[in-house]
Amino acid sequence: MSKAITIAGLAKSYEGKPALRNIGFEVREGSCFGLLGPNGAGKSTTMKILSGLLDPDRGDVRVMGKELRRNAAEIREKIGYVPQSITLYEKLSAYDNLVFFGEMYGVRGGELKRRIADVLGRVGLADRAKDAVSSFSGGMKRRVNIAAALLHRPRVLIMDEPTVGIDPQSRNHIFEMIRSLQKEGVTVLYSTHYMEEVESLCDELAIIDHGEVIASGGLGEVLDRFGSQAVYLELNGPQESQAQGQEQEQEPPAPAGFDRPERKDRGWIVRTNSPLEAIAAWAEACKAKSLPVKQLEIVRPSLETVFLSLTGTTLRDT
Ligand SMILES: Nc1ncnc2c1ncn2[C@@H]1O[C@H](COP(=O)(O)OP(=O)(O)OP(=O)(O)O)[C@@H](O)[C@H]1O
């Protein structure tokens, strides 16, 4: 399958301080590719370089097989970029904002009208077209920004943390829109620091930290390769409320021969590569203390455990 984006050895410093040290990944045409990393990892810098807004210091960047800098004008027509910050005219309606952006791309007249109707429908704002953007929620403004990036019908859509600080309804619209664009063969590069978004949206991903790719590939492949397994225990009765911090904290029952359990949601987890043995030992420990087990199960590897095992920290702590 052909590659929509190929990046190799990408480096960029700001005033001598490296933001990207060595970024490399490939994005299959028609896929949704997640760029996952904590604040300051280098996601925005990578995306700005791809969109032609920043020049790299080093590295090879290709879009649809063409080298970025030598084919800048042609590539710009193929890329839609949704920046992190929202750039709209508050006093104008959603429709008039899109007229402004459409004319910037050189689209006019009846064709522009048709495209505005199409993109507003895609982001679920057709019925608010004539309302001033100042009356919109943050999520709706973000959706207008996305609509603007789609007006010239890009083959590659670059979205920089599009769901930060927005309402669940807008988030769902954005997810649905991405899925339908993908069906039409559009490639999506999506940055986020929410692991669950990558897990539900993306076929492939790169985890970046301190300007370097620390893991990349298909979601299943990355989970198999770097994710550790765990066992989860939840108890019935008073222990359940202790887990929620409503009563004085007590040591959880520990499975003999395994790491100490860590608090997780309403229960505890133990990380282990021998989950069946851990389940047996934990069941034994609970039985010995007559503790009522509500749930005892293997937790499948997640991007959370991958990130933890690769960086030693959770994404939320960073
Ligand atoms: N214009 C700039 N001038 C100086 N340093 C910058 C500039 N833009 C980014 N940086 C620095 O470069 C590094 C990478 O930043 P970047 O914005 O690419 O990361 P990010 O992963 O997108 O983070 P965030 O999730 O916060 O947007 C950070 O250390 C940041 O402080």
UniProtKB/TrEMBL annotation:
<dbReference type="GO" id="GO:0005524">
    <property type="term" value="F:ATP binding"/>
</dbReference>
<dbReference type="InterPro" id="IPR003439">
    <property type="entry name" value="ABC_transporter-like_ATP-bd"/>
</dbReference>
<keyword id="KW-0547">Nucleotide-binding</keyword>
<dbReference type="InterPro" id="IPR027417">
    <property type="entry name" value="P-loop_NTPase"/>
</dbReference>
<dbReference type="InterPro" id="IPR003593">
    <property type="entry name" value="AAA+_ATPase"/>
</dbReference>
<dbReference type="Pfam" id="PF00005">
    <property type="entry name" value="ABC_tran"/>
</dbReference>
<dbReference type="InterPro" id="IPR017871">
    <property type="entry name" value="ABC_transporter-like_CS"/>
</dbReference>
<feature type="region of interest" description="Disordered">
    <location>
        <begin position="239"/>
        <end position="265"/>
    </location>
</feature>
<dbReference type="GO" id="GO:0016887">
    <property type="term" value="F:ATP hydrolysis activity"/>
</dbReference>
<keyword id="KW-0067">ATP-binding</keyword>
<feature type="domain" description="ABC transporter">
    <location>
        <begin position="5"/>
        <end position="235"/>
    </location>
</feature>
<protein>
    <submittedName>
        <fullName>ABC transporter ATP-binding protein</fullName>
    </submittedName>
</protein>
